[in-house]
Design a protein that fits this description.
Layout lengths: L2 H9 L5 H6 L9 H16 L8 E3 L16 E12 L6 E11 L4 E5 L3 H21 L5 E3 L3 H13 L3 H9 L3 E3 H8 E3 L6 H4 L16 H16 L3 H35 L21 H8 L16 H17 L69 H8 L4 H10 L11
Helix pairs in contact: 9-10, 13-14
């Protein structure tokens, strides 16, 4: 649940999970589809029984279609890392000390690294293992849960300057398969967290964790203790701790394997063919957010009215575009591009600019509004915007900077003089450049 959603729920009098589960009707500021999803999640969490697998529903079965077809060469991968490890002056931090994986038969393979140099060797060994396996099984995939593995493969390759092409190729070929977004898009689980450890009661059965190391924080602590023991020469006790970490990593890999198989079973139950893209779903209703306007208001900047589009223009094009659009809007007539709406006599056209908007302007932007004075007083946009600030420009019949610039581009003297006498296309429309 997002912070903004929580705020809207509290404002609607929904302050507990029980309130949410039993609530009805819309909630201001939150999309109806989002409210329905949150209510179902709350009901599932209330229905959960301690010591039993959490209740689960497959609410979007087509999302399971992205699962690849199983291959004999598939592997299930998990990193173990110590974010506080460093060497020397402490310029680089974080060591991925274990690259663990299992195959479809749950056979465990580990690549250990206890310093940065060994981490590079472990990466090269892991990528060589994957290259060989892809040669034997071209359709194989590497399954993982959440983005840590993908991100850290890229980071380690960049850190050591090795294997970057191999990692890029794995990503281009969609070899890495993250099961976490599949779970989030297809399932609702009666648990406060969607971490893989909270999902394991659904599919691990008698294989549930019973080791001393049961979570990532425990593994980091255990690894730091093992390193301290190695430094003290207590290798036997240190190795026992490392073996416990290895068993924890193996279990995570097996858990990923079992989750993949369980998701395939759910797809089969729902009649969803796998190995295909998810069909285009209907447009998702997005809840409105006031964050942008709140930040602009805090900075003293007027936000653009909803539905009004803007684009960046060069100053000269901005002036040309402003007068042309405004004249069209005021008179209902089109003006050919590049022509000046000022008459040859040097007088302004009947529709001129007001220095301020009337008090009835719906946007209350009297200070900045520069719309035509004969436009409807019900203007809700304050069109057009105020001219950009800059050095003042002359508003008489003499040539201006723009004409001089044109002269440098080789326009005939006669045309330059004629334009200057009749008034510049751009100068008279704005007081500042």
């Amino acid at each position: 649940m997002r912070v903004t959603q929580r705020t809207h729920l509290i404002e609607a009098g929904i302050v507990t999970i029980d309130d949410l589960a039993h609530s009805t009707g819309p909630v201001d500021g939150v999309a109806d589809s989002t409210v329905a999803s949150l209510r179902e999640q709350a009901r599932l969490q209330l229905d959960a029984v301690a010591g039993s697998p959490p209740p689960v529903t497959v609410y979007n079965a087509p999302a399971l279609a992205v699962l690849p077809h199983p291959e004999a060469g598939d592997i299930f991968f998990d990193f173990e890392g110590d974010p506080l490890y460093t060497e020397g002056p402490g310029v680089r931090w974080g060591l991925d000390y274990l690259f663990g994986l299992v195959d479809t038969d749950a056979e465990f393979t580990a690549f250990w690294a206890h310093d940065f140099a060994a981490e590079r060797v472990a990466l090269e060994a892991f990528l060589a293992f994957v290259r060989e396996r892809r040669r034997e099984h071209p359709g194989m995939h590497i399954y993982h849960y959440a983005s840590y593995e993908r991100t850290h493969l890229l980071n380690i390759a960049a850190r050591h300057g090795v294997g970057e092409e191999d990692v890029d190729q794995l990503l281009r070929d969609n070899v890495l398969v993250d099961l976490y977004p599949v779970v989030r898009k297809a399932l609702r689980v009666g648990s406060r967290s969607y971490s893989i450890k909270k999902l394991e009661p659904l599919y691990m059965g008698d294989e549930l964790r019973e080791s001393d190391v049961t979570n990532a924080a425990d593994s980091i602590t255990e690894y730091a203790n093992a390193r301290d023991l190695l430094a003290l020469g207590q290798e036997a006790e240190a190795q026992r701790m490392l073996d416990a970490i290895g068993d924890y990593n193996r279990y995570d890999c097996v858990s990923t394997l079992r989750l993949r198989d369980w998701l395939l079973a759910r797809a089969a139950e729902s009649g969803i063919p796998i190995g295909e893209f998810v069909p285009q779903s209907e447009i998702v209703e997005v809840e409105p957010s006031t964050l942008r306007n709140d930040l602009l208001a805090l900075a003293g900047i007027r936000s653009r009215p909803s539905g009004v589009r803007t684009r960046r223009l060069r100053p000269s094009l901005l002036r040309r575009s402003t007068i042309t659009a405004a004249s069209r809007r005021a008179s209902g007539k089109g003006i050919s591009r590049g022509s000046c709406s000022r008459s040859r006599s040097g007088r302004r056209p009947a529709t001129s600019w007001s220095s301020r908007a009337p008090a009835s302007c719906a946007t209350g932007t009297a200070k900045d509004c520069r719309r035509p004075i004969d436009a409807s007083s019900s203007c809700a946009e304050g069109w057009p915007p105020a001219a950009p600030s800059g050095p003042a420009i002359r508003r008489d019949r003499t040539c201006c900077t723009n004409i001089l610039d044109r002269s440098r581009r080789g326009l005939p003297n006669q045309e330059r003089g004629q334009r200057g006498r009749s008034g510049c296309l751009m100068c008279w429309t704005t007081e500042r450049f």
